[in-house]
Specification:
The structure holds 2 protein chains of 2 kinds. Chain A has 12 helices and 2 strands, in the order H-H-H-E-E-H-H-H-H-H-H-H-H-H. By secondary structure, chain A is mainly α. Chain A has a single domain, classed as MetI-like (MetI-like fold). Chain A has a two-stranded antiparallel sheet with strand order 1-2. The longest helix of chain A has 37 residues. Chain B is mostly helical. Chain B has a domain of 213 residues: MetI-like (MetI-like fold), CATH 1.10.3720. The longest helix of chain B has 38 residues. The termini of chain B are close together. The interface between A and B is large, with 51 and 58 residues.
Amino acid sequence: MRTLLRTLAKPFTETAGLARWMLVIGLVMTSLFVVLAIFAPWIAPYGFAQASSGGVDFPKAGAPSGDHWFGTDRLFFDVYSRTVWGARTAIEVVILSIVICVVVGVPLGLVSGYYGGWLDRVLVLVMDAMFAFPSFLLAIVFSFLLTGLLGGTVLAVALSLSAIYVPQYFRVVRNTTVSAKEATYVEAARAIGASDFVIMRRYLLNNVVQSVPVLGTLNAADAILTLAGLGFLGLGIQSTDAAEWGHDLNRALADAGSGIWWTGLYPGLAIVLLVTGLTLVGEGLNETLNPTLRVRRLLPVVMTPREER
Amino acid sequence: MTGSRSGSLPRYILQRVLLVIPMIWVILTLVFIVLRVAPGDPVSAALGGKLNDEALDQRREALGFNDPLIQQYWDYLTSVARLDFGTTFSDNQTVLHVVRDNGGATLSLTLAAFLIALLVGIPLGLVAGRYRDTFPDVAIRIFGILSYAAPIFFVGFLLQAYVAKPLGLPTSGSAGVETVYYMERDGLNRTHILLFDVFLSGNSYYIEDALKHLLLPAVTLGLLICGVFIRLVRVNILQTMQSDYVEAAEARGIAQGRVTRRHAFRNALVPVITVIGLQFALLLGGAVLTESTFNWPGLGQKLVEYINDRDYVAVQGIVTIFAIAVVLISLLVDIVNALIDPRVRY
């Protein structure tokens, strides 16, 4: 328990100055959105696809007012409520896609790196090809297919996002496995008759998953942008199924020329804030873990004048 | 190390070129598996409801969708080898034709965006790295993070809502209706790349019109990559400033400004050249969104249209071409890299 706490606190204790500030600000911003996501039903005054309240229709593209803090859009929806509900969609999709990535990428990388041979070569080739492919196009192709199969659901979009990131998890885990399996403790385990499964599960797994949390944080920021991009192109979640910032911005674009700024500004700001928060956390962690970026702090040496005798 | 045959440049280039073939093969196979083997029938997806069952079956037969998969796979590979990327369902054009008509717009957009990103990103990165942890550094880094965090279509929305009107800039298309009409009527569309054609025509009205249309989309896309450059240049400067030769130069008593300019900056910019090529994939994804935001008549816009029509052949063709382009560009980058930096040649 104490070691766990110490590991969690490591980014704070080992950073100083700007890096620590970035980490703290990033964490605060990110947790704000997590709170919005969890408590959306209590924070948002209306539902995400609610166009009237108490028998009274909302105004069409109404300017911000006391009833509708962020105004309403052309579909009569309350922009404030949709922005809050959008946090829930974004966080749901990102968590789901990272879980899929870990569940698929880590075992594949472990097996591929441990056994080597033709399986390893084929997997590396396929993953490299996927990695070389422009990631947003990959997401477009996968969501084109998956939304055709599963409809515009959270699962379909999360799966399309995973297609981008699985190769990264695979690579990291595979490469660390390849070097970790040469260690003497693995050899010792094999000598006392441990099976391959036991070696992978009990000896290698803990050593190779260390980099996964950092990768997850860095990918989360990118995933939010990709999710919004897909939504903007109309390939993501449908606006009646859930509130999605990218899709709202797509509908808002038509308003940009006619002076209706509130339908696009708030969902857009939400994306910027959440992505900035996650990026700050990622950068802060990176600065802790990447020693080449650390500042060499020189302590001034004060030479006291020697007393003349 | 030196003079050994394994280190020769032609040999490295040959190795790298040969490596492209399996890479393209794997990507083509991936595209085929994803788009063709997946359930759902392309013909009824695109034309269902428009034709009766018999006509649908005829189309399927004609396009070879009734053949066994392995046959379809072989046909796909051989037709790509013959540079035949298929004919679209929805508007019955060859994919190459679509690329010729729309690729130019994407090319001019991405080139302009690259230029803006370099002009803004490199100086800002240099300043941030040089004055580490001071106010300019913090401000520039925040700008860098924001330019990455702000989605293309949000920047586009803000520019359309707040900048376009006061400056009188257009927000849709790559040129005015008049320009497009007269260019075509007078046979001035020589290269099929509008931006080049207007310059070739030498008509200042057309040039101004095309540049005005280009400005906002290029700035929007340029901002996305400029964040990458800022970050990269900054980190490189930080690492170079800590290197031994910089310390040595300082120890020799060379003025601080001169060390930074002549010793650190130059070497910090070398890796930038290599990373520029790698940004191409990011740029391509960004171009799709920029084109949709500004109604820019490029390949990305076309791709989205075909996706909405569920036109599998067109999507497969365009994606194949994008993939081959990315592989070829990374080949080019590696070769340029090897020319610049001998260490790359193993």
